[in-house]
Specification:
binds protoporphyrin IX containing FE, mainly alpha, about 200 residues, 8 helices, Fumarate Reductase Cytochrome B subunit, single chain
């Protein structure tokens, strides 16, 4: 199999924007003076995820949820395969990774929404507790996700982080997407910045 274009630019830009915005929100979470930065980072997280949900329906083949989200049975089967060294290589996301991805998107949205409530003095102390719990759960899933990426890279002898940077993975020519959609990625970047600014001020 050759290296073919699998991840379009919106998936890649969205991923690294999400990583950056989540990290920024995390490190500013305890600071009173950096509340505005924290809220803007949270707004960007919401913006990226809302875009990703839409892109999961109208995006390129491997970005679509229908192409990679499978049930827990398929995820278990893949994990068993990993344990026995017989996990099949997937051109897009593998079924276990897909579960972490869906969880990260859901947790990111819920963390952002509860943060917005707190920022606007809506809801009580329990919303603050919930916000903190959701953020911690998201960090835990993100760590499992990064470990999964490392294991997947080793088992399949494929640098998955590089693939999330340049979009290229091992695959058949027929599995390649037609184009990277860079304009859409530019639109996503602007949209995420607008969401950050809009929700923070
Ligand atoms: C520096 C740490 C991270 C690295 C190296 C990393 C790497 C990757 C890689 C290689 C993939 C593709 C996996 C595959 O081939 O199936 C991926 C997907 C994904 N990652 Fe990460 N990740 C990191 C942190 C995070 C964090 C912190 C989040 C959430 C806050 C996150 C959310 C996601 C999501 C949502 C996807 C799916 C991308 C899409 O289809 O749009 N990642 N990540």
């Amino acid at each position: 199999m050759d290296k073919v274009l699998i991840w379009d630019a919106p998936v890649r830009i969205g991923h690294w924007l999400l990583v950056g915005a989540f990290a920024l929100a995390w490190v500013t979470s305890e600071s009173e003076s950096l509340r505005l930065v924290h809220a803007a980072a949270g707004g960007a997280v919401i913006g990226v995820i809302l875009f990703r949900l839409l892109w999961g329906i109208i995006g390129t083949h491997h970005a679509r949820f229908a192409s990679f989200v499978r049930g827990p049975g398929a995820a278990l089967c893949y994990l068993k395969g990993l344990a026995t060294g017989r996990a099949p290589h997937t051109t897009g996301h593998n079924p276990a990774g897909a579960i972490a991805i869906v969880a990260l998107l859901a947790l990111g949205l819920a963390t952002g929404a509860t943060g917005w409530l707190i920022y606007n003095d809506l809801g009580g102390h329990w919303v603050e507790e919930l916000h903190e719990g959701l953020a911690q759960a998201m960090l835990a899933v993100a760590l499992v996700h990064v470990a999964g990426v490392a294991i997947g890279s080793l088992v399949h002898r494929e640098n998955l982080v590089r693939a999330m940077l340049n979009g290229m993975k091992r695959g058949l020519p027929g599995e390649a997407i037609a184009g990277a959609r860079p304009l859409m990625a530019g639109g996503l970047f602007v949209w995420a910045m607008v969401c950050g600014w809009w929700l923070a001020v």
